[in-house]
Structures are given as structure tokens and as C-alpha cells.
Amino acid sequence: QVQLVESGGGLVQAGGSLRLSCTASGSFFSINTMGWYRQAPGKQRELVAVITSGGSTNYASSVKGRFTISRDNAQNTVYLQMNSLKPEDTAVYYCNAAVTVPPISFESWGQGTQVTVSS
């Protein structure tokens, strides 16, 4: 079983910054792609940013240039640095990891952390 524990959410004014962290624990062989998704009230969950084990990244167009995803493979941790936050970034942010426990691979999700940006 794999657990993803997120931290770092909170309330911030527009233009401010927050840093989210997510650490994976449990029994697994490897963690491949890790990422962050978000879900605002009344909206579908959407991709924010992903990063491969090799460090390749991909961002939603709405956050490109403001958010930076990074990871520490030795600590099984992924980070999301969020700068120049806007009220429309308000959402529950979920960590996601593609995990391999031989012979299967599957996705694991964190419990979510609330990010609220006030105008």
C-alpha cells in the first residue's frame, strides 16, 4: 500500500506564494510520474503540473510561468512552488503518483490540501 501525504496549503492574498509538498510512503518498487491536480468547487479535477522520474515537466497553460514543480527522488517527495497566486487558483490540490509494485503499476492519490487565494 502507498500513502501520499500533502502539506503546505493555506490562505494567501493574491500575488502571494505557497509551496506544497507531497511525500510517498509504503512498500513500492518505484515511483514514476508525480504530479499535482486541483479541483475547484463545481469544477472537474484538472492537471496542474507533472514531473517524470527523469525531471521532465509539463504544466497547465494557466499556471505556466507562475508555478514550478520539482521532486526529490531520494525522499519520494514532489513539490509545487506557486508564485503570483490568483483567486482563480483557489482549489483543493491533490498529489498524484504513478507507482510500480511488481507486477502491477497503478496511480495513488493524496487526500488533498486546500489552497485559498483572496482578492
Give a structural overview.
The protein is mainly beta and 119 residues long. It is built from no helices and eleven strands. Strands 2, 4, 5, 6, 9, 10 and 11 form a seven-stranded mixed beta sheet that branches. Strands 1-3-8-7 form a four-stranded antiparallel beta sheet, with no helix packed on it.
Keywords:
119 residues; mainly beta; 7-stranded mixed sheet; 61% strand
Helix and strand topology:
Blueprint: E1 2-7, E2 10-13, E3 18-26, E4 30-39, E5 46-51, E6 57-59, E7 67-72, E8 77-82, E9 91-101, E10 104-109, E11 113-118
Parallel strand pairs: 2-11
Antiparallel strand pairs: 1-3, 3-8, 4-5, 4-9, 5-6, 7-8, 9-10, 9-11
Return the structural class: mainly beta
Number of helices: 0
Largest β-sheet summary: 7 strands, mixed
- Unreliable spans are none
Instruction: Estimate percent helicity.
Output: under 10%
Instruction: Please compute the radius of gyration using only Cα atoms.
Output: 14 Å
Number of strands: 11
Distance between the termini: 40 Å
Helix-strand sequence? EEEEEEEEEEE
* Mean of residue pLDDT values: 95
Name the shape in a single word: elongated
Strand content: over 45%
Q: In brief, what are we looking at here?
A:
The protein has strands at residues 2-7, 10-13, 18-26, 30-39, 46-51, 57-59, 67-72, 77-82, 91-101, 104-109, 113-118. The protein has 119 residues and is mainly beta. It is elongated and about 50 Å long.
